[in-house]
Amino acid sequence: MDNQKVDILAFGVHPDDVELSCSGTILKHIDLGYSVAVIDLTRGELGSRGSADLRIKESEKASKVLKLIARENLGMQDGWLRNTPENQIKVISAIRKYKPDIVLANALDDRHPDHGRAAKLVAESCFYAGLIKIETGQEKWRPKALYHYIQDQNLVPDFVVDISSQIERKMESILCYSSQFYEKDQTGPKTPISGKDFLDFIKAKNKSMGRSIQVDYAEGFNISRIPGVEDITQLR
C-alpha cells in the first residue's frame, strides 16, 4: 500500500533481525490495534546459508505471520553497509512515506558490525527526515520516538515490553526463515544461529527480560534520550 501512514515502522539491516528481536512487540501492538510496517535494509546476501532471493521469500512468509501493513527491502549492501548520504536518503524516503510515530531500529552495539552501523544510520535519518531542505519529493516527517531493540549482546535494557501472549507467534515468525535456523534434517553449513540451542537461547533471553517485570517473556529496548512519563502509577 503506497503512502499509507503507520503507527510503527521497524527497520532491520538483515531480513530476520526484526523477527528475532522485536517481533513480539510488533505482534503485541498489532493486537492492540496499531499498524506496523517493516523496512529491511539489505537482503542478507552474505549469510552463509540460503540466498538473497530465498531470504526475500522467507521475509514475505514471516510478514504474513506478523500481519504487517507493508514490508520493503531497500537493497543496501550486506556487510558493507555504511552511513552514507545515499543510504540516508533511502531511509529518509521510507520514513516520509510511512510517517510513523514510532521507529524501531537495530541494536546500538552488537556482535555483527552491520547492526550498530544500521542503528546510527536510522537514528540520523529520523532527524534528517524532519528537515524541509532535504528534498525527496515528499513532505518532511520526524518520528516522535526511536527505540533500539536488543539483539545478540546482553545489553541492559532501558525498558522491556511484555510479550508473554505473543511468544509462540514470535517463534513462528522466526521459523519462517528455514534457511537460517534449525530444522530437522537440515542441510548447509553449520552457523552460530543454525543450531536448535539458538532458538532455545532466544526464548531464554526473552524469559530473562520478562523476569525483570515479573512476566513470562519480554523484549528489551534501548533509547538515546531521556523519556517522559505521564503517569508514574502505570510503570511496573
Quick gist of this model?
With 236 residues, the protein is of the alpha/beta class. It is 36% helix and 16% strand.
Could you describe the 3D structure shown?
- With 236 residues, the protein is α/β, with parallel strands linked by helices.
- The chain has a single domain (8-224), classed as LmbE-like (Rossmann fold, 3-Layer(aba) Sandwich), CATH 3.40.50.10320.
- Helix content is 36%, strand content 16%.
- The protein has six helices and seven strands.
- A seven-stranded mixed β-sheet has the order 3-2-1-4-5-7-6, sandwiched between helices.
- It starts with 7 loop residues before the first strand and ends in a 14-residue tail after the last strand.
Write the layout of secondary structure elements.
Blueprint: E1 8-12, H1 17-31, E2 36-42, H2 52-66, E3 70-76, H3 85-98, E4 102-105, H4 113-128, E5 145-149, E6 159-162, H5 167-174, H6 196-211, E7 218-222
Parallel strand pairs: 1-2, 1-4, 2-3, 4-5
Antiparallel strand pairs: 5-7, 6-7
